[in-house]
Specification:
single chain, 6-stranded antiparallel sheet, alpha+beta, 158 residues
Length: 158
């Protein structure tokens, strides 16, 4: 009977140790991931910006407009998907479009106006990528506020 109590006592101690150290270890792992993600983004930034612009331009959005120029701001806002923990990066951009010849937007004076938006980047399997997703008319902070049920800022910049 004493051996059984010793085993039970050992299991309770083990459970307490796991409970005490699991969260800090998990938090530390996420902090390392965030640091590495930020570092990789800076190293690959030029390639990622080009990939974003090319992919977004191919999307055909907004309809009737062609991507002419996209200027990226320097700050990267990181956020985490509340459902799956995946990191995303948002960068403020200023986009200039031109009307597609023969399209609905041709001849409209507002076509040449600069549009501000947030370019969306995804950190998956240790690499940054983009699908050209653009959150129009919102800078990164505004986008995170708008999508606060889906994303949370990870670097306290909200």
């Amino acid at each position: 009977m004493t051996a059984l109590w010793s085993i039970l006592f050992g299991l309770v101690l083990l459970a307490l140790a796991i409970a005490l150290f699991w969260r800090p270890a998990r938090t530390f792992g996420r902090e390392v991931q965030v640091g590495r993600a930020r570092e990789l983004f800076q190293l690959q930034r030029e390639k990622l910006e080009h990939q974003f612009q090319a992919t977004a331009a191919e999307s055909g959005k907004p309809r009737g407009l062609r991507w002419k120029q996209c200027r990226f701001e320097p700050f990267l806002q990181l956020a985490r998907d509340r459902n799956n923990g995946q990191l995303i990066g948002l960068v403020a951009v200023n986009i200039q479009f031109e009307a597609v010849e023969g399209g609905d937007m041709e001849g409209l004076p507002a076509v040449d106006n600069l549009r501000y938006a947030s370019a969306v980047f995804i950190f998956a399997r240790g690499q940054w990528t983009t699908e050209g997703k653009t959150v129009f008319n919102m800078n990164p902070r505004e986008a995170l506020t708008h999508f606060q049920n889906q994303y949370e800022p990870v670097d306290g910049e909200h």
